[in-house]
Please model this.
Amino acid sequence: MASQMTILSRARKTLLKTLNHHNNHLKASIFTSTILRQEPELAEPALPQSSPSPLPPNPASGSPLYNTNWRNPIPQGQIQSSIIPQGYMHQPSVSRLQAFARTLDGSSLMNVFADFMTSQRWEDMIQLFECWIRLLDRNGKPNKPDVNLYNHYLRAKLMMNSSAGELLDLVAQMEDYAIIPNTASFNLVLKAMYQAREAEAAEKLVQRMLQTGKESMPDDESYDLVIGMLFLTAQIDAALRYVDLTLRSGYTLSMKVFADCVRICVNKGRLDALVSIIERCKSMDHNKALSPSWNMCIFIAEVAIREDNSKLAFYALEFMAKWIGRGDNARPPVLLSVDEGLLLSAIGTAGRTYSSTLLDLSWTILRRSLRLKRAPQPESYLAKVNALAELGNLQTAYSTLREFEIAYRNSPEAVEEDIFSPFTSLHPLVLASSKNGFETLDTVYFQLENLSRADPPYKSVAALNCVILGCANIWDLDRAYQTFEAIGSSFGLTPDIHSYNALMYAFGKLKKRGVERFFGELSLEQVLVSGYLRSRQQPSTFMNTRVEASRVFDHLTGLGVKPNAMSYSLLVDAHLINRDQKAALSVIEDMINAGFVPTKQLLKKVRRRCIREMDYESDERVESMARKFKIRMGAENRIYMLFNLEYAMAEYA
Model:
């Protein structure tokens, strides 16, 4: 007890001595002034010397600065280095700083901090808070900050680039003032960790926040900081766990975190993780409104299409469809459209990945982007037809082919680029039509036959050409020829060059080159319209006939139909199958005279047949043609090695 009284007396004497010193200084400065006007006035009653001074703080109050405030007063140098508001900064008296600090309570100090934050005077905030917290309030007790005031102090420390360890120490000191740290306090520490990329420490801090209670439970900002750190350090799986925790906690994923997620997942090739995040966001009601920016949607779509990720491409296009809808509903409307090339690639991805949803959405957005001002490009129609063929939806594929023909039937592109050729553009549809053999081909044929009698009728030579070539692919010459005949007899149409090419392909594939004497005196046109082949129910009748592929070629030229490069190539193949390389070379010469250039593959096939037949003279002709058109043939040593292998029966003991 005696020791406590000694401490109190010493503290009281120190405080009184300090106050008297300051009062004497003020009196001297007033009475020695020569410019002050002195007037007689009543003297104020002097304070009694026995008046009790403010008592020192009770140690039981919990103030951590009890010893510092009373036994070790604040050094004058430290007070002079403190920053106070602008009105007191340039005053020569240090006592003015103390007087100003003594007049501040918690609410007024909060207002001062608001002014400092507006002007970003972070260092002033730090020094003023550290000075204020060592002073006494009006009741003679140590100033005690609340959690909001202390958080302002932490924010100022953060803005002055304090480390996460320093902020953690300051948060730990909050317990000395009986202050419970809240979520904002820990978020300031997380921000310091974010700047230093301390992801592991941030995870531990969040786990601590989850265990402490309601006052410091993580919020959306806490999760965003941790997830952002994990993405920046390429810890994608850990980030996914916190994304799931964020969504289950009822918070919304911020666009900044989502942008970081997109960037990291794309750079690391983790598109599956990006798809998982989008799916989790869409499964939550409060995250269904997730909508990346327009440019980010385009970026995600391009990456997804390049990697053939149909789910991610679908989500990207779905976001873009929402943007288009919002733009149309705006006043004034903002007309957004997606590049047709991007949607064309998306349709191709849908076909390769067998995604009907991506196909339907891509075509819908394409139609909406064009706004009925023009038809889609031929490449878009072909991509949709081929995608539907890959999906096995032949009925919709042929319906799309019908739209395609209506849009580009009289277009010069249809003639110049052979966009309706079953050998090139429509070849996937041909393969899909013959996938299950004659069963699928007959189904397609009867559907086309029913459509020809519909209102309005649909009659398509391009569709029938696909059936003819499909019959040739399954080596069914009966159905191929009957379908060719039905173009004129049942549908009332005229075969085009692709029809003749498909029939030539069927004849050449089955080596139908010899001509029976029964048809020796008949022209091909008479054979085509003869009654022997009109019924699809008599497949054996046609097998008794042999119509040459060359006569089909002669017939189409006689009808005035101009053969194309495919016609010559098919005729060359027919001769090569029957080991007649000289006739094949004659056809190539006719092809050159007609203005076409033989391809490298065609010349290599002829050269291969010449070597196998040991016709070196014809081989020289092939080489001269290659030199004429500057085609580098290359060697086929590996093929020749396989061709010259001599197989012998191995003898086993």
In short: Confidence is low (pLDDT under 50) at residues 1-56, 65-94, 513-547. Residues 346 and 455 are 34 Å apart (CA to CA). The radius of gyration is 46 Å.
